[in-house]
Design a protein that fits this description.
Mean pLDDT: 95
Distance between the termini: 31 Å
CATH topology: Rossmann fold
Strand order of the largest sheet: 3-2-1-4-5-7-11
Largest sheet: 7 strands, parallel
Helix content: 25-40%
CATH architecture: 3-Layer(aba) Sandwich
Radius of gyration: 19 Å
Shape: globular
Number of strands: 13
């Protein structure tokens, strides 16, 4: 099996590439192929390699929570996702017809800020910058439907101790300064990184899996409950909230959509179609 991974040097991509090596050849598309440590690095100028692959996995995209959303940052967030996805889709379209699978990352930001509404895959898109960015991202991915089995995974906050959101959260908690963000009432759709990697392999192995799936743990939690659980896991207090006004001052609109807002997302399709989460509860994931 030949597998191409775009974004294969990052928080999700590198461990995924390691798991996929047992299945065959893994090619990692990168702006700097020399830095690829798992799989064979190839430059984006060689994106046509994706056309001959059996499986193409798209994890490429600028980090939405890396800083204040200036006009330049917004363009990078939009452009990095749309351009990479379009390049992969075009490569598959140019290649000879064959049976192939295209798995493209997406995000629960698609739903916008919806309060306590329970959101499965049938829920409509929301409003805001993130919802619009994700909507465009998914539209680009669906452009491959005529040449591939397309699977789109809407991820929640992915948890692992060596990176992502959890690594950033742990330092203040270890210093005894952890607590909820703002009111703490916002919903936090989360998922263990191992379950993300397992879901991608599940999609590879099952030809009946296609379309859009929420890949979030079955039990979303409010931010205040997440803070308490993390405090317990680290044996630290979780009593110092981060004021909403301070976050808005530093991060602007990004604070409202990423930090102070949330979505009560559930993985209806994946669980109905037989995917079993190894870490369905927050306590199990944080122990892991």
């Amino acid at each position: 099996m030949k597998i191409v991974v775009a974004g294969g040097t990052g928080f999700l991509g590198q461990p995924l590439a390691g798991r996929l090596l047992k299945r065959g050849e893994v090619l990692v598309l990168s702006r700097n192929p020399a830095k690829v440590r798992v799989g064979r690095g190839i430059p984006w100028s060689a994106v046509d390699e994706a056309g001959s692959a059996d499986v193409v996995i798209n994890l490429a995209g600028e980090n939405v929570g890396a800083g204040r959303w200036t006009a330049e940052r917004k363009q990078k967030i939009l452009g990095s996702r749309h351009d990479a996805t379009t390049a992969l889709v075009d490569a598959m379209r140019r290649a000879p017809a064959k049976s192939r699978t295209f798995i493209s990352a997406s995000a629960v930001g698609f739903y916008g800020l919806r309060g306590d509404e329970i959101l499965d895959e049938s829920a409509a898109t929301g409003s805001g910058f993130l919802a619009e960015a994700v909507r465009r991202w998914e539209e680009a991915a669906r452009g491959a439907e005529s040449v591939a089995r397309v699977v789109i995974f809407r991820f929640g906050v992915v948890l692992a101790k060596d990176g992502g959101a959890l690594k950033k959260m742990m330092l203040p908690f270890r210093l005894g300064m952890g607590g909820p963000i703002g009111s703490g009432g916002q919903w936090m759709p989360w998922v263990d990184r191992d379950d993300v990697l397992r879901a991608i392999e599940w999609a590879i192995d099952r030809p009946e899996v296609r379309g859009i799936y929420n890949i979030t743990a079955p039990e979303p939690v409010r931010n205040r409950d997440f803070a308490r659980a993390l405090g317990r896991a680290l044996h630290r207090p979780a009593l110092m909230p981060v004021p909403a006004f301070a976050l808005r001052l530093v991060f602007g609109a990004m604070a409202d959509e990423v930090l102070l807002g949330g979505q009560r997302v559930v993985p209806s399709r994946a669980t109905k179609e037989g995917f079993a989460f190894a870490y369905p509860t927050l306590e199990a994931s944080l122990r892991h």
